[in-house]
Amino acid sequence: MNSELAIIRIKNLRLRTYIGINDDEIANRQDVIINVVIHYPAEKATLSDNMGDALNYRTITKEIIALVENNRFGLLEKLTNDVLSIASKHHWVSHCMVEVDKPHALRFADSVSLQLSYSKN
After folding, report:
1. Can you spell out the DSSP letters for the chain?
2. Is the overall model pTM greater than 0.85, yes or no?
């Protein structure tokens, strides 16, 4: 049976970056946890078993890692949007969702997260 829609999930990508506007956040790297969901048509890949016919999640993940680890972000919104731009840039992507968690951002909460999504018109 052929599947037309593939859903790639990159789960709990744990990275460290400079994120925030307080002095200690600017001076010290913090943990972030990134989850990405990418929808794309994969019928060609399911028939050919050829990497050239599939969306390469390893390449996408490497780009996200480089972005997060090599930059500074004041806002969670900016970081999340930049990750979404990487995850959704391939012309095959029909829908994409990115959620970035910032553990221990609030005193009595496990984390604060922000989610953004993209859908092709």
Report:
1. ---SEEEEEEEEEEEEEEE-SSHHHHHS-EEEEEEEEEEEE-HHHHHH--GGGS--HHHHHHHHHHHHHT-EES-HHHHHHHHHHHHH-STT--EEEEEEEEETSSTTSSEEEEEEEEE--
2. yes
